[in-house]
Amino acid sequence: MRREPARGRRSGDDVSRASAAGLQLEVFPPGDDDLGVSTRAQFVARAVVAGGALTAGGVLVAGLPRIAVSAPSPAQDQKILNFALLLEYIESGFYAEAFAKGKLTGNLLEYVTIVRGHERAHVAFLKGALGDKARKEPKLDFGETTSDPEKFTTAAIALEETVIAAYNGQAANLTKGTLNEAAKIVSVEARHAGWIRAIAGRNPAPNATDQPKTGAEVQAEIKRTRFLRAG
Amino acid sequence: MSDLTLGELDRDGAIREAVEQVSGETRTAFLGRAAVGGAALLGALAAPGRSEATAASDVAILNYALTLEYLQAAFYTETERFGAVGGELKRVPPQLGAVERAHVEAIKAALGRAAVKRPAFDFQGVTEDQSKFLRTAVAFEDLGAAAYKAQAPRIKSSALLAAAVSIHSVEARHAAWMRYLAGATPAANAFDQGKPESEVRAIVASTHFIVRHPKSTASKRPKYTG
Amino acid sequence: MAKGVAGQRAIIRALAVGAAAIAAAVIAVLVWSRPSSPSPVVEEAQALPASPRPALSVPRPVRLRESPGAAYWASVRRDVSARELASLRAPTVTRLVRTTPEETANIVLVLGRARDESGRLWVHVRLPVLPNGRTGWVPRSALGGYGLVHTHLVIDLERLTATLLRDERPILRAPIGVGKPAWPTPEGEFYIRNRLSRYSSPFYGPLAFGTSARSSVLTDWPGGGFVGIHGTNAPELLPGRVSHGCVRLRNEDILELGRLMPVGTPVTIR
After folding, report:
1. C54 with A209: CB under 8 angstroms?
2. In this structure, is residue C118 part of a structural domain?
3. C251 at interface of B, judged by CB pairs closer than 8 A
């Protein structure tokens, strides 16, 4: 009696390719709910995974090291926090001026009213943490972004996105105590980003991860805003 | 022989220091060639810079994160399948479901055989009712973000920490978005507090969403009609 | 001619002065309008340590795939009356209990959901009772979590084949034995209720599945007995009409079915 080709026997079946490669397949547990990956891709993913990620003892197989990371230290924390303070000064100044100019209404007014308080608190916290090592308040020029609702929205989104990427970029370089506090701040910045994007009718969370940015990349973003003035 | 962890071999931290970086693409390619078991560890150590053993505590943290991601993924997936949610919430289950499923895949791939299995869930109608769904989504996203915050300082691998913070901020965005949709303040405080694992697990347990898989097999002799 | 040369030099001098003036003006404009790039910030940003590359490789989020032929089942969480309608006032169709006679979780196939006047959620379910094909309504709170399957088993009593479909595409087909004329395998819509293994009974082969289908004619078992799908120690009889109602497969086929078909799979017998 003719039997239909069962799993693993159709040509082009990812399952048969994976098993032919000699990788041990995890038995597909019948009834496992679809988690959004096609069944065949799930087989392949499990095959790759079973091929050798972690052993029972816990070896996470890694590739070649890239750039050597400089070990966390209080001195390094200081550098990073001073940079964070610059970003918070920019945000704080931006929202304070927008609030003061009084040209925002509705959802934007609610947003700026609450968020300016948060950024002010972030500045205060970082100044306190840095003590006499804290940078001076920078000279800032926000142009029309603090009086025109559309320009405000665009600028707010750009600022919040940059700040998230900056914190995410430096998190692993901080000492644990400082990281603990920085996480509480970036969490709020991420909420700000979700919030202002929702107000703007944009996808609040378009990506599965928020990629980190390097110091140089963040500096380029800040330069693009033209908010920072010399002096 | 028992599998060894790097901690037991790398007393002066030299190897760990040399292998701080993990490259995503290279690692995936390397996975395809790697053997399993003690041989892999020894072989890898012979070429320092090619592998790093994950601290047992990092494995535990990853599995804890995986459980929370399984929970969120299943919650949004089931809600999408039942079509219970519409109006301005319509894109939420498909989008958040897709993202949480991607988080699940990422953590499972990193853990391999060490990954905890996906549990069974009973959402007791919450995935079938729009307002219950939204309230629960707010709670889940707030909880997920709080969990990541408390774990971040405990993560030993800096590459893993970088990955964790890049996921954490997405959960915080989700939390703000769900609150926005629910008419609640998206960002109530200037500083968000973390929640320790024991508290998070207690909250999850109190929902009774995670259940035992129903027993569907038995070793009994069939009493069928034959 | 002195006048011409002097004139030329004057012109050149004038041009030179003019050019210089223009150049100065241009430079002045450039300097004045160029955005200030505070160099301390640049140095500071570049002095920040590099970011380690994240260890997790998160794949691109993927939408749920279309699931033609997806079916839900749920376990019975507490003993409950299944009713004719989604209402506590409706008559009882049957009493559902939490466990099967084989001591597995009792499960029901989900056909639909609705709310009653007070907003309580009810689930329409396929029942493992006679007459075959009975359905009823239970409160959502009486059921456990939903299980999802993508498979469907079709038993063809004329062709004497069992075909397993996944996403409505056949992935297994096998010859079967079905009920003799006096003890026919019932036709209709059913589901796989549980799975038995590691018993020693060559008559049933290595693996057996319990269905929700009852035999309406056989009287030696209480309630008419359940129709099972199982292996056999007489494969030479297949395909054929040989049993008391059960569906028999060759042992290699029942084992393959066991790898592919989860509990909760809907079963059509026609």
Report:
1. yes
2. yes
3. no
Residue C87 shares a structural domain with residue C155: no
The domain locations on chain B are 6-46, 56-211
Of C57, C196, C263, the CB nearest to B222: C196
Q: How many domains does chain C have?
A: 2
Helices (H), chain A: 14-20, 39-50, 74-101, 106-130, 149-170, 176-199, 215-225
Q: Mark yes or no for CB contact C113/B166 under 8 Å.
A: no
Query: Phi and psi (nearest 5°) for A64?
Result: -65, 145
Q: pTM for the full model?
A: 0.80
Q: The domain containing residue C242 runs over which residues?
A: 151-269
What pLDDT digit, counting tens, does each position of B117-149 carry? 999 999 999 999 999 999 999 999 999 999 999
**In contact, C246 and B226? CB cutoff 8 Å:** yes
Give tens-digit pLDDT for A134-179: 999 999 999 999 999 999 999 999 999 999 999 999 999 999 999 9
- Give the closest-approach CA distance of A33 to chain B in angstroms: 8
CATH class entry, domain B56-211: mainly alpha
Would the CB atoms of C171 and A7 count as touching at under 8 Å? yes
Q: How many CB atoms lie within 10 A of CB C200?
A: 8
B3 touches chain C (CB under 8 A): no
Asked if residue C218 and residue C111 are part of one domain, the reply reads no
Interface contact A67-C50, CB threshold 8 A? yes
CA angle C254, C258, C262 (to 5 degrees): 135
Shortest distance, CA B222 to any CA of chain C (angstroms): 7
> Which tokens in the block code for residue B14?
């030299």
Choosing from C104, C120, C149, the residue where a domain stops is: C149
